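Long-time lurker. I teach an intro course on protein structure, and each term I like to show students one example going from raw sequence to a predicted 3D structure in token notation. This year I'd like something fresh instead of my usual example. Would anyone be willing to generate the tokens for the chain below so I can use it in lecture? Attribution to the forum is fine with me.
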Amino acid sequence: MPTEDEDLKDDAKESATDESEAEEESRALVTEPREPASIDKVSPGELTESGESAEVDGDEMEGDAPAQLGAQRFVYAAYFTGAVAVAFLLSKAISFGWSRLAIWKPQVGEPDEMVAVVSAGIVGALVAFYYYRDVKVRTLAEEVASELGKVTWPTRDEVVNGTFVVLVTTFAATVFFALMDRFWGFVTNWVYGA
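-- Reply from a regular --
Happy to contribute to a lecture. Here you go:
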């Protein structure tokens, strides 16, 4: 029958063996790179090899249409915004030109806003389509969009805190310069006796 001393020695040997095995495993993890778990291979809530729950960004969830487009959504938004801007400016230019033409040639009549807006909208859509088909422009837009997709936008709390700091700093600077203006006005009036 083993004594207490022998039991303690056995426990110490087992813990030393466990520690050396743990060190060997951690060295193996550091020296032998593993393939990282991919979002495609692990679904949300599923346990990974390390026993941690897989986390998936809101942008990577299935069924989330803007996330499925990725950075491409910025490209589409830019082309749409460009088409609307061209249509808006062109409709104003058509209306202005038509009104000037009506002054010079009264038989032309007053400008028809519907014709100006529809024709400008068609031209805006054609311009956007033309530049979308241009490979150089589209590649540039996609590169800009991919970089824009990497931007870390501030959280609501960061925006609120930043706004608060700006407002307090502006108020303090306003009070300081108002007091300095009064002080130097007083000194100037006292020196020159006004």
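Some talking points for your students: The radius of gyration is 35 Å. The first helix runs from residue 4 to 31.
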